[in-house]
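## tool: complex_structure
## caller: assistant
## args:
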Amino acid sequence: MAVCVAVIAKENYPLYIRSAPTENELKFHYMVHTSLDVVDEKISAMGKALVDQRELYLGLLYPTEDYKVYGYVTNSKVKFVMVVDSSNTALRDNEIRSMFRKLHNSYTDVMCNPFYNPGDRIQSRWALFAVHALFLQGLPC
Amino acid sequence: MEAAAGGSCGSGPPPLLLSEGEQQCYSELFARCAGAAGGGPGPGPPEATRVAPGTATAAAGPVADLFRASQLPAETLHQITELCGAKRVGYFGPTQFYVALKLIAAAQSGLPVRIESIKCELPLPRFMMSKNDGEIRFGNSAELHGTKVQIPYLTTEKNSFKRMDDEDKQQETQSPTMSPLASPPSSPPHYQRVPLSHGYSKLRSGTEQMHPAPYEARQPIVQPEGPSSGGPGPKPLRHQASLIRSFSVERELQDNSSNYPDEPWRITAEQREYYVNQFRSLQPDPSSFISGSVAKNFFTKSKLSIPELSYIWELSDADCDGALTLPEFCAAFHLIVARKNGYPLPEGLPPTLQPEYLQAAFPKPKRECALFDSYSESLPANQQPRDLNRMEKASVKDMADFPVPTQDVTGDDKQALKSTTNEALPKDVSEDPATPKDSNNLKARPRSRSYSSTSIEEAMKRGEDPPTPPPRPQKTHSRASSLDLNKVFQPSMPATKSGLLPPPPALPPRPCPSQSEQVSEAELLPQLNRAPSQAAESSPAKKDTPYSQPPSKPIRRKLRPENQTTENQEPATTVSGPASVATVKPHPTVQKQSSKQKKAIQTAIRKNKEANAVLARLNSELQQQLKEVHQERIALENQLEQLRPVTVL
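## result:
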């Protein structure tokens, strides 16, 4: 299951980061940060085509020995990064996609709230709950 | 360990083995439920109830409340009810009740709901409105009736059952943080005695006198809070009273105030009037909705802090569409009023504030529901292919295409979409596809219910004559001919592949059922026809096989007033080919075509799934190779290190 989920704003600062294991969070933060480069690279590679045709799910950004990092970008350049434990019997690509989709849904729910200023840190409890579910089961229930 | 109530119902679930703590806890709970049912003797000490288990039955009402408070989803609770045998025998005897409690504990521990689950050692089931039963086990039965701020409304209304569970489930993550021991002492100072409205105070005073009596009559359980005995009506008292009322023998005392009138989350009629008037001042049409920005300005006037307002909004906007319908608005307003009067905000939306409840309680035009029915089938079908598209390579173009009439939605910034109602429409509509697909997650939230139907209709009406769909990037595979696609399909990396392939227009063709509906059908049909065609072209756009112009194209053209580009055909045409043969009447043709389209789309979906599986396999193989390469690299590095003996100092 996901060990770290991060929502990064367009300007590449984090809106929301959460790691499952509470120790060594810094390592995951660092991983997410370095993955931003890969995300940008992927976006620009695909960005030659029209924005419309760009895929939202970026797929595996890079694997390390212990973890794999997946990326997803929305149309407003908000990025979702998910770090998954490699030891998990490989989560299928579809599952990762569906996890991102749910994350995206939660994100849009947060956006719906007129009292949320885009660019603020996300403190919505519902969103946090959905992410928490991602950690627990890989798929929110 | 003793067998519990073995004699009562031998043919029911297998005999339970309960530990002493469980036995005590269960019998106490049973007594509470049973006592409320028959107004029998006051629930004496737990031991005494053991005498009566064979004869007493727990009423469905309090039992349902108790089960709901366990915060399990409705389906689990139904399963539990069936498994424990209550459904079969028609009542909750002690055996059924105990089995059910054990199953609840199993479910809360994450075990599947099976008879086998209850054979093992389990923690006690936890119920939201009372303290942890674990506390009870340690003899602190007083905690049982301690108040929790967010006591879910103990109502026997089954229609709120499901929603309550979903809210409760969301509460689950927060409830552990609220230590039961901490809440009672802190709650009294927290509450002010400001009545929410004169209606409340009247009723509250009416029931206040009952409060001491229940407490004394309530056997060894003593209320720890001071205000409970003395104060007229702080919330904890009220909650305790309501809690006790639902479970205790004093239930008849509350008959004069039926339905827990002093429940702070219930909206009285005059409050309702006020809210409706306020709603009207913001939005003349009571059956329409208030946009987020308007509501934000209005609620900001209440001088609550922004995080609190944000939280209230999250609670009340049940379908998360960025706008408030009348019931949602009333719920939000009520929460604000409660908060201003000092009541802490609940963890989840109380049942009395649920939109459906408010709608039922106060008649309201059911326009949305009717519309929703007509579009409900269109939506699920929409979502499926749409989700597939997203899975395969969705893009914003889907969003733009989907709400065809609202072409203004280019969806660059989803957030901008939400700022106004108009823009929120496509956003909601575009969200709908995702939601049913993620049915697990979102089944509780009736996202599309009150909103999307109206939005779709309005969108339809607005876009009577939608502009032509954007030109599809051709030369990519078509969905319908996916058999060829699988052959042609390059097993390249998904990333690179996505770069090559244009996005699939997610337009899920609206299925035929909606066609048989009302006048909007006429508007629908052109949309439907265009939608399938666009979906068709999107799928062609995906793979690399060249198009083929289907013969039915002219006929489809006739049906759709808008000019159809040539690429519109593919799957829709292959499907509609046979259907559209020599049919002059638009309607039957359209219907047949739509049904054929549906089948074509389903086949396309299947093919896409296969393609997806191929891709996934490929992906895993490549990752495996990558891992091996990594290992080689590591091995080589190790060798290098070893071969470098002296240079390292």
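## assistant note: Chain A touches chain B through 50 residues (CB under 8 Å). The mean pLDDT of chain A is 79. Handing back to user.
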